[in-house]
Amino acid sequence: MDELIAILQDIDPDVDYETEENLVDGKVLDSLSILQMIGEICDTFDITIGPKWMRNENFNSARKIWAMIQAIRQEEE
Amino acid sequence: MQITSLVFVLFLCAVLAAYFLAPKKWQWVVLLAASLAFYCTYDVRHLAFVLFTSFSTWGATMAMARLDAAQKRYLGGEGKALSREDKAAYRAGVKKRKKRIMLLALLANLSILLVFKYFHFALEQVNRVLSIFRAGPLRDPFRFLAPLGLSFYTFQMLGYLLDSYWGNVAAERNPLKTLLFCSFFPQMTQGPISEFGQLSEQLFTGHGFTYRNWSWGSQRLVWGLFKKMVVADAFAPAVQRVFAQYGSYSGASAFLGILLYAVQIYADFSGYMDIMCGLCEIMGIRLTENFDRPYFSKSVAEYWRRWHISLGAWFKRYVYYPIGVSKWNRALGRSARARFGKRFGDMLPASVALVVVWLATGLWHGANWGYAVWGLLNGLFIILGLWLEPVWAACRAKLRVREDSRPWRTFQALRTFLLVAFIKVLPEVGSLRDGMGLWRRVFTGRSLPRGLRQLLPFVDWSSSFTAIHFFVACAGTAAMLAVSLLQRRRPVRSLTEKWPMPLRALLFAGVILLIAVFGVQNTWMGGGFLYAQF
User: Fold this and answer.
1) Contact at CB, A35 and B349, closer than 8 angstroms
2) CB contact under 8 A, A51 and B330
3) Which sign, positive or negative, has the C-alpha torsion B479, B480, B483, B484?
4) What average pLDDT does the segment A19-32 reach?
5) Which CATH class is domain A2-76?
6) What is the pLDDT of residues B322-371, one digit of tens each?
């Protein structure tokens, strides 16, 4: 989770990612920053994020992004 | 059936009566019957394409759902003892079969769209090349009128097919319910392009009559009719005159003509959405919103998040992201990052995806070079905005401009409005050359208009009837602007809700009177909806 928070802080260091639950709907993350983040996440966690995961609700909070990473890992195993 | 006709109003009354009188579990059947009847009033032959799209998508989603269920059963039972590698191989086999089914349905439906919408355009280009070699032109065997709403319902069903393939929605078992999702009449001909997960449940579950839904829905419906009939249809003949005669206009008149088209298309398209969203609201169904006061946007990118929202969301979800996260595009980003730095590496994959999205968006609107250039111009401004953001930030800092200050935000909104208004007319004037001719006229038509008649040569001054209707539409535009400004904080309907009943009734009756006095006659001149042609 710490690695994920570090990736998110690289996009906007002023956001409290531990508590923020509205990253996409609150326009903290836009489609460009999501794509940037995907690259970092795939490299860091050695996973492939396919188009099926690219739904706003998967990116609305650090917790949800983390849950998505875990689900992808489980699927890839 | 014209949406702005008395026949449509009677049709709505009949649908609403049947909808609320029917038992809740059969209300969706009323909607299906109404949708098919509505579509048949345009061209009953085209219903075959709607049926094909619906049932082919239903067949594909059901086949994929069966494969998923079989996989779950097998791996939960017999296949439990398989090694990890064997399980992975089994899953890969199922995935491959699902992909084949999805691609088959995708290609079958896309081919209808391609044949009807793009074959003629492609053939024209081939014939152009052939003419260079003095070869005879090839004849077009598919020169038919495209089925109404083809681009809208095809995209909606492709979205459902992909969501089902990815496992994001459960497949609908009932083929007739799938047909209703495809053909739901308020959205079928001009959108919004809805997601299955968002709309289906609302369509298939019953809704009771409530006074609030009736009150709010009918207010929005009437406001939509006002925008379309009193404003858009009154400006339509004037805009046609601008496009046909701009060569003799002064720069100021050509400029006003461009602004006029921006107002007309907004009043036309958002008016349609208000009519249909209002109708659905009466039935307790919330359609996806397609507009969020787009002319107040501060950048072209923001404008496209607020104009035709459902189309932008579709392209983002099914084109932009899949290209953005594709292996080849990420590899391109990694390579660019290694050579030119992090920012370049981050921006390049998104820019590649944006070019594809905007070319496709342009061609979705129409199969000609004008729309292709229009789409790419929108994409260019969005990509430039992204790449040059640090430059703009430095300029703002140097000029000591506060980003949240009202003058700066007003400047940004005006700049964006003018930019999109100029881009909008490009494919509409006629050819691409004509579109650019209108732009040129704005800057080269130096004669100064003397008086209102010369400033507004596109108004038919020979008839006091059309001139009066034009100025009523201008007042209607001011009313639309006022409503948009009020909507910044909350829906206008929540404000009027607090007014005394007689005052509300007076306002409602006033708007209906304006529609009856001016709108009905305008509609004879204005014709159909602009977005129905897409």
Assistant:
1) yes
2) no
3) negative
4) 88
5) mainly alpha
6) 999 998 998 999 999 999 998 898 899 999 999 999 999 999 998 888 99
